[in-house]
Write a structure and sequence with these properties.
About 5% of the residues have low confidence. Helix 42 runs parallel beside helix 44. This protein is mainly alpha-helical. One of its GO terms (cellular component) is Ski complex. It comes from Naumovozyma castellii. InterPro entries: Ski3/TTC37, TPR-like_helical_dom_sf, TPR_22, TPR_rpt. This is Superkiller protein 3.
């Protein structure tokens, strides 16, 4: 012992010296000698606390010391100095150990009667310094722990400790669950039916070991504040629900009952949690909604007046379908409670609908009206989407209201909610589930019957398996049999039920009705009477059942009367009496009124009273199809389609009519026809389609659908529909009629017109068919006109006029459409002047004689166009008569003197039509009176309707020559009304161009071109502007482009294109072998040919045609036109005696002479040339000189061909005197002189050429001519000179040698010079030509036939079909020869080459 003491002294000395390692070593020796030495443990704790990395050892020795002598303060003081030093807690000593030590230390201090202030301070510092220590702190401060017993009153209450601990653990668990779910969620498929179960189950990993439930229980038991307890009870309930959701299925049931008991206990103490009350009502699983505790519902409603479930429950007990009697409660108390509810509602919510609802309740003794009940249910069900009881109530309400389709979504939602709650919470909702199954089966019985009857039967069978005594399921099956009209099975089943439950009045009534339909009338009446005697009560459900039974009794008497007619209609009288009694019992029972209507219609023949009964029945029940049918027929017969449509629409929307509408389609058809009457074709389509889906063989619905498609512009679809109607009924006239109309709208006139003719043939007296035929013929004529078939269009118009004549004379019909169609028909005659001689004047006179002019006196005074004036005039030409008839047709369309009874649009259109015809006559006849009449008519049209674009355009055109500003204003106004109309912009541009405002015209046309580049008008206007600016090259291109865009059918483009093309090629020394020129001139003559059909007597067009035909060497056709033109000019000169007409006549005679020369009518050519010369002698201008040159050429050549050489020379001498420097004239004379063939003439010819070259210089044509003459004369001495001249031609001349005549001449010269080497004559020249012009097939003709063929077949190469055919057959290849014949079948050489192949 002494040794231990000595060692302890040494250790103490070493500690005082701060030699902690030595002190620790000495203390260790002490422990070896005395393992339970208190001071050695203390010294070691102190030493190790001062040595680095020995903190754990220090703690362990201090703990050992406190364990040895717990009440000795020495170790405790040192120990807590160590614990409160930096870095010990929590790195070395955990929070739990620290707070355990604190508890022991506090006990030691108390036993030693020492103060706890320092320890409490250190604990507070520790708690503040380390927030993570709170959980451990709260655990040690729980009620019953040593630390809480000794220090709790100084630090924290047990309630707060538990609250804090619950909060920390709850937050940690939620965080852990969130991490687990986020980690595992990606491994699960959302398509998995058990996805939500698996997600919920993930939390069980945390909740399985949770202590929160015990902590909540402990906290609730020690809380003494009611509000706080209620709060934590709510939190505890929410926690338990979360745990319940995560539990395995085998554990859910027991825990659910524990939670359910908790909920019931909380309701029992009137807990303030909304969740508690909601769960209470939902989990109670009421067997019958009428067995709920009414007082508890009212308490719930008072406590939570804005809660949707409370509102729904309260609405149910106030409803007439429930068996609750709300009036039993003390009204005064309830009013006071309601007033408090209102006050709370005003302070807690701004729900105006609730305040209004509560006010209504006050006014009516706290009960809701039936309308308010339905509103309350519908408004609140959307806010109670997760409550199965709410869905059960609203679905039950709709079932009792017989609104089965409205109930169906709520039932399905409720079933889904029940399954989810059973799955997630393990709820026992047996009654709720069965009730939903029954209501679903009931809905399936009536909704879209019999589509879901099998499903309903399956549900009823399933319920009966679970509950064999379920009367509702058995009766439900019976009702399905009744709905299917399977009366035998229904009778059998209901008999079994009534035997088991003889007092069930519902079954008794259904059985009586079944027997009535089986013909057992007396037995049925007895059963129904028995049921009526046993019915007691006056609530709505009982009253409705009594009314139903009375109605069935009345129907049984009616069935009995129908089967066996009684004397004096006794059965009908009894039925009538019962129905009257029924109405007194329940005046809102619709079938009673409908059945009365049947009696009045069938037996009493009183249509007025029948209509009133049906009307009342339909007002009460929009699903009464019999009443709707009767009323609709009445309205349709009186042409009151709006009322008929209203009835049909209500019937279609009625849920009760859904089943019958599966086999009855007339309501859909009526609505479709009503929409057609209102011109709402797009809306009518779906109704006709619905009608056809019900009855695919309903021809009228098919026709209505076709009309709707036609009105919407879906013409192809309408044709298919009409064809289907004709397929169903091949003799249906209107199906054929509308098909013909649709075909004409499609432009299929060749199919439409025969159909119309067939219809008019079978119904000749039907005005509509005849007018449609006439209109369609006119439309067909216009279609042909726009396609370019002008002659055929006139023949069709003639047919249409004959039809109109029949309509007017035979049918005495004079409708507006007829006169408008006649006006359009006559306009075609004006457009196609070449056929104006075919105008059926007699027929037109007969048509117009049928009635007189009405309401056109003002315009008659201007244009003086009336039938009598037309008949009185004898010197008018055909076109004038045609224009007058055209105007007259437009005037006849005016139906009366005063147009006020017609819409402004109609009046404006009629006068605009007159204006258009007057303007057409003005433009054709060039008479001012028609222009003035057009201006008057357009003004009148604008007066009636100022936004008519056509009227403004017409007025602008009519005033172009009258007032520039007015015309401009009209066009600007029209542009404002129709900014995208290119025609308006073009007219405005032409007005500007007419008045030399080229810049403004160009701006307008450029804008129009950007808007509609495919339209030809802007291009034509731009071409005119360029031409006026002198840019003829670009203008010519634009004229051609405009002509192409118009497809060669625009009258204006035809003429201007011809003019520009002739200006481009005439006088430019174009060779007649130029294929491009021939192509364009051919196009020109084709365009003019179409133009002459429209305007055959246009002198300028005839001149253009003559020039074109002359260049194309079509002298025969040109001869006919020239004769027509000369006759025209003669007649015009005779009328006007104008010198210009005489001059033009002389010019045309000169041209006629050239044509006669081409026809080899030399004498006629001489006569016409001399006549032209004689007239031209009195004129002097540039055109006179050109015409005189032409005449001298014609005279010279004619005399030459007539072998009068002296006259030939005389005229040629005149030519040289007029224009000796003209190369073409010199060459012509040279060729003629050389053709004479005498040495002198050849010498003179050569001398003329030589003189020309000396004065004008050498050019390609003269060089080639001299070379050719030299070769023909075989002047070998000059060959080398000619060869040198040809070989040294410059590149520009070689380019001008388009037809490669110089290489050919070189070849001929070389052959003559080098006869020994004639095989390769000209080869070098041809090779050089091919090198310079490789894309010209003529360059390869002497070198390589294969390359020649390939180059000539290139699309860029211009070549005639004959030449291409020659190239192909010359290859001697069968395939190429066949191509040759394909290109040119008349090529005889190709035919011979093909024969040689076989």
């Amino acid at each position: 012992m002494s040794e231990v003491k000595q060692l302890l002294k040494e250790a103490k000395i070493e500690l005082s010296r701060a030699d902690y390692e030595e002190a620790a070593a000495i203390s260790e020796q002490v422990l070896k000698l005395d393992p339970e030495n208190y001071f050695a443990q203390v010294f070691l704790g102190k030493s190790y606390s001062c040595i680095e990395n020995k903190m754990k050892d220090a703690v362990s020795h201090y703990v050992a010391a406190t364990d040895l002598l717990p009440n000795n303060m020495l170790a405790w003081k040192g120990f807590f100095i160590l614990l409160n030093s930096e870095g010990v807690v929590p790195s070395t000593v955990s929070f739990d150990d620290y707070f355990n030590l604190c508890g022991k230390y506090a006990e030691t201090l108390i036993q030693n009667e020492l103060p706890l202030v320092e320890l409490i301070h250190e604990l507070r510092v520790m708690k503040k310094k380390f927030p993570q220590s709170h959980e451990s702190f709260y655990r040690h401060m729980r009620p019953g722990t040593p630390m809480a017993e000794r220090l709790g009153r100084h630090l924290i209450t047990p309630q707060d400790a538990l609250k804090g601990l619950i909060t920390i653990i709850n937050d940690r668990e939620l965080e852990s669950i969130a991490k687990i779910v986020s980690r595992e969620r990606l491994r699960l498929s959302t398509n998995d039916p058990d996805y939500q179960i698996k997600i919920n189950a993930l939390a069980w990993e945390v909740f399985n070991t949770s202590e929160l439930d015990d902590l909540y229980n402990q906290l609730i038991n020690i809380l003494d504040d009611d509000d706080t307890r209620a709060k934590y009870e709510s939190l505890w309930l929410e926690y338990r629900i979360r745990v319940l959701k995560s539990m395995p299925i085998d554990l859910k049931l027991n825990f659910f009952f524990k939670v359910k008991n908790m909920v019931e206990d909380m309701v029992l103490v009137d807990h303030g949690s909304l969740l508690v009350w909601s769960l209470y009502f939902e989990w109670h699983d009421y067997e019958d909604l009428d067995k709920m505790d009414k007082n508890l519902i009212l308490k719930f409603f008072k406590k939570f007046p804005t809660e949707p479930l409370a509102m729904i429950l309260y609405a149910w007990i106030c409803s007439s379908f429930s068996k609750y009697d709300i009036s039993e409660f003390d009204n005064n108390d309830k009013k006071n409670e309601k007033t408090e509810t209102i006050r709370e509602s005003e302070t807690e919510t701004e729900d105006d609908e609730l305040n209004e609802l509560v006010e209504n309740e006050e006014e009516d003794s706290q009960t809701l009206k039936e309308d308010d009940i339905l509103i309350a249910l519908n408004d609140n069900i959307s806010k109670a989407q997760n409550n199965a009881l709410a869905h059960r109530i609203i679905s039950q309400y709709y079932i009792f209201s017989k609104e089965y389709e409205a109930a169906l979504p709520y039932i399905k939602k409720g079933i889904s909610l029940v399954s989810h709650k059973i799955r997630d919470l393990g709820c026992q909702l047996i009654h709720t589930k069965r009730e939903f199954s029954l209501t679903l089966a009931t809905c399936y019985t009536y909704v879209d019957a019999p589509q879901f009857h099998n499903a309903a039967m399956t549900l009823f069978d399933r319920i009966l398996q679970e509950s064999p005594d379920n009367t509702r399921a058995k009766m439900g099956k019976g009702i399905i049999y009744i709905e299917r009209e399977n009366w035998q099975d229904a009778n059998k089943l209901l008999k079994e039920v009534i035997n088991e439950y003889p007092d069930n009045l519902d079954v008794l009534s259904e059985l009586g009705w079944t027997k009535a339909n089986l013909g057992q009338y007396d037995e049925a009446i007895e059963m129904l009477s028995s049921a009526l005697r046993m019915i007691t009560g006056n609530d709505l459900r009982t009253t409705t059942f009594r009314a139903l039974t009375l109605w069935r009794q009345a129907k049984s008497y009616i069935f009995k009367e129908a089967a066996n007619v009684s004397q004096g209609l006794e059965n009908i009288k009894l039925a009538f009496k019962i129905l009257v009694q029924l109405i007194k019992v329940l005046d809102t029972y619709a079938p009673a009124y409908s059945t009365l209507g049947d009696l009045y219609t069938t037996y009493y023949k009183d249509s007025g009273r029948a209509f009133k009964c049906y009307y009342k029945a339909f007002e009460l029940d929009a699903g009464d199809h019999i009443a709707a049918n009767y009323m609709t027929e009445v309205y349709a017969k009186s042409n009151n389609w709006s009322s008929a449509v209203q009835i049909a629409e209500r019937l279609v929307k009625a849920e009760k009519a859904k089943r019958v509408l599966q086999t009855m389609n007339w309501p859909y058809r009526v609505i479709g026809i009503g929409n057609l009457e209102r011109q709402q074709e797009s809306d009518s389509i779906e109704w006709f389609q619905s009608a056809i889906r019900v009855d695919p063989n309903d021809v009228e619905s098919w026709i209505g659908l076709g009309q709707a498609y036609l009105g919407c512009g879906r013409i192809e679809a309408s044709i298919k529909v009409f064809e289907k109607a004709i397929e169903l009924d091949s003799s249906h006239t209107y199906a054929k009629y509308f098909k013909s109309i649709a075909l004409s709208e499609m432009g299929e006139f060749t199919e439409s017109i025969p159909l119309l003719k067939e219809i008019t043939g079978t119904h000749p007296e039907e005005e509509t068919f005849q007018v449609s035929l006439a209109t369609t013929l006119v439309n067909y004529a216009y279609d042909l006109y726009y396609e370019g078939f002008l002659m055929k269009s006139i023949s069709i118009v003639l047919d249409s006029i004959e039809v109109m004549k029949f309509i007017v004379s035979e049918l005495s019909c004079s409708v507006q459409n007829l006169w408008i169609s006649l006006s359009r028909a006559l306009k075609l005659f004006v457009f196609v002047e070449s056929r104006i001689d075919c105008l059926p004047v007699e027929s037109l006179v007969e048509i117009f004689s049928s009635k007189g002019l009405i309401g056109t006196k003002d315009v008659d005074q201007i244009d003086d166009v009336e039938l009598k004036t037309i008949l009185a005039s004898s010197d008018e030409d055909n076109i004038t008569i045609g224009c007058q008839f055209l105007i007259l047709a437009a005037k006849y369309a005016i139906p009366s003197e005063n147009l006020t009874e017609y819409a402004a649009t109609v009046r404006s259109a009629l006068w605009c039509n007159i204006g258009v015809t007057e303007l057409t006559a003005s433009l054709v006849l060039k008479e001012a009176k028609f222009r003035d009449a057009a201006i008057f008519s357009f003004k009148r049209s604008i007066k009636y309707q100022s936004n008519t674009t056509e009227a403004w355009i017409g007025l602008g055109i009519a005033t172009m020559d009258v007032n520039y500003r007015v015309s401009q204003h009209c066009f600007i106004k029209a542009v404002a009304l129709a900014p995208k109309d290119i025609e308006i912009s073009f007219n405005l541009a032409m007005l500007a161009l007419k008045n030399n405002d080229l810049e403004f015209a160009e701006q307008i046309l450029m804008r129009s071109q950007s808007v509609a580049p495919q339209d030809s008008s802007p291009w034509l206007g731009l071409a005119l502007i360029l031409e006026k600016n002198g840019n003829t090259a670009d203008s010519c291109s634009l004229f051609a482009h405009s002509f192409i865009l118009s497809n060669g059918r625009s009258k204006m483009s035809q003429l201007l294109y011809a003019k520009s093309t002739l200006q481009k090629y005439i006088g430019n020394e174009n060779d007649e072998r130029n294929i491009q020129v021939v192509e364009e001139l051919t196009t020109v003559i084709n365009a003019l040919d179409q133009y002459f059909k429209k305007e055959p007597e246009n002198a300028f067009a005839l001149e253009c045609a003559l020039l074109t035909l002359e260049r194309l060497h079509n002298f025969k056709f040109a001869n006919n036109l020239s004769e027509k033109l000369t006759e025209l000019l003669e007649s015009r000169f005779e009328k006007t005696q104008n010198e210009n007409e005489l001059f033009n006549f002389a010019i045309i005679r000169a041209q006629f002479a050239r044509i006669q020369l081409g026809l080899r009518n030399f004498k006629s050519a001489i006569e016409n040339s001399e006549l032209s010369q004689g007239i031209l002698a009195d004129f002097s201008n540039d055109r006179v000189i050109s015409a005189q040159i032409s005449n001298h050429i014609c005279l010279g050549l004619s005399y030459f061909f007539l072998d009068d050489f002296d006259e030939t020379l005389a005229h040629f001498q005149e030519l040289l005197n007029i224009s000796k420097d003209s190369k073409n004239l010199v060459l012509l004379i040279v060729k003629v002189l050389y053709e004479v063939g005498t040495p002198d003439t050849k010498l003179i010819a050569m001398q003329e050429l030589t003189d020309y070259v000396k004065t004008q210089g050498v050019d390609l044509l003269t060089t080639l001519t001299i070379a050719a003459m030299t070769i023909l004369d075989k002047k070998k001495e000059d060959f080398r000179t000619i060869l040198k001249e040809l070989n040294t031609m410059n590149l520009s001349d070689m380019i001008l040698d388009t037809y490669k005549e110089s290489p050919l001449l070189i070849e001929q010269v070389e052959r003559s010079l080098f006869q020994d080497k004639a095989v390769d004559a000209g080869k070098n020249t041809w090779q050089r030509t091919a090198f310079l012009f490789p894309n010209d097939y003529k360059s390869w003709s002497k070198l390589d036939k294969r390359i020649e063929r390939r180059v000539s077949s290139n699309s860029a190469c211009k070549i005639t079909a004959q030449k291409m055919s020659d190239i192909y057959y010359s290859s001697k290849n069968q395939r190429n020869i066949q191509r040759s014949l394909f290109l040119c079948p008349w090529n005889e050489k190709a035919v011979m080459a093909l024969k040689e192949c076989f």
